[in-house]
């Protein structure tokens, strides 16, 4: 008796099962269209491996009172959050106050200025003020001849700040001009072409809009800068010491 529920494949003579040359898959209505049997898949998958490097405790790595190291703070100096950027600058200030010897190491100065210089043009006033306070504490410990490799980076961001559409950024830039003129007059004079070109229109506009009582405060950076440039031109562009 034949069991209709069990279908067996037809066998070739000799006991071997016949293999079909082509097998057509049936497409069901409402289902995803089946890809052809000879289709080439172009899909690929990627995976990202993130390696977190932690400094070993007690291995000579210094930190501030909150346990933050230079590497930690520099990583947060360009964080998307303004609060995090400000906290990083404040943390750097406390770190260098506890460990001023770091400021004598070129390996610490280069990443420091690379990370914090962009904050000169930050749209948040708290971040700009934190940077100004940090530089006021840090720069007096770095003599002018040691600042030669790094000052160009500060000058580029300062020049950018002087041309920002945001008036508060432009005005805050004048404080940085004052600081650099006071500590590094020679280096400031060497970058005078770009800085002075952007500074003059700013000063002219701010003086015209400022009340009489405030005009002297606005013009002081421009007057000092002009005097520095004249001295630099007479003396050969300013010294490095």
Structure description:
By secondary structure, the chain is mainly α. The protein contains 9 helices and no strands. The termini are far apart.
Question: Descriptors for this entry?
Answer:
241 residues
Summarize the structure.
This protein has helices at 70-76, 82-98, 106-116, 125-138, 144-162, 167-183, 185-190, 192-209, 212-235.
- Looking at how many chains there are and whether they match, the oligomeric state comes to single chain
What Rg do the Cα atoms give?
33 Å
Number of strands: 0
Structural class: mainly alpha
The percentage of residues in β strands lies in: under 5%
User: For the report, how would you describe the main beta sheet?
Assistant: none
Q: Any low-confidence stretches, pLDDT <50, length ≥5?
A: 51-59, 207-211, 233-241
Distance separating the two termini: 111 Å
Shape descriptor reads elongated
Helix content: 55-70%
Total helical segments:
9
N-to-C series of helices and strands: HHHHHHHHH
Mean pLDDT rating: 76
């Amino acid at each position: 008796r034949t069991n209709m529920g069990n279908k067996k494949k037809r066998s070739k003579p000799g006991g071997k099962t016949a293999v079909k040359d082509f097998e057509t898959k049936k497409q069901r209505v409402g289902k995803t269209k089946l890809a052809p049997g000879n289709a080439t898949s172009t899909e690929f998958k990627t995976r990202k491996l993130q390696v977190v490097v932690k400094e070993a405790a007690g291995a000579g790595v210094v930190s501030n009172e909150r346990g933050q190291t230079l590497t930690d703070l520099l990583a947060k100096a360009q964080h998307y959050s303004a609060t995090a950027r400000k906290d990083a600058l404040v943390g750097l200030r406390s770190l260098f106050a506890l460990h001023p010897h770091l400021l004598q190491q070129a390996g610490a100065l280069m990443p420091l200025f690379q990370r914090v210089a962009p904050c000169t043009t930050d749209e948040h006033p708290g971040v700009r003020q934190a940077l100004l306070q940090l530089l006021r504490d840090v720069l007096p410990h770095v003599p002018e001849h040691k600042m030669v490799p790094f000052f160009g980076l500060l000058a580029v961001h300062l020049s950018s700040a002087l041309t920002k559409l945001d008036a508060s950024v432009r005005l805050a830039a004048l404080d940085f001009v004052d600081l650099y003129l006071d500590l590094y007059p020679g280096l400031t004079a060497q970058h005078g072409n770009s800085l002075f070109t952007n500074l003059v229109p700013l000063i002219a506009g701010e003086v015209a809009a400022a009340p009489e009582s405030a005009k002297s405060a606005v013009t002081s950076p421009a007057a000092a800068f002009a005097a520095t440039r004249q001295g630099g031109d007479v003396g050969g562009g300013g010294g490095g010491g």
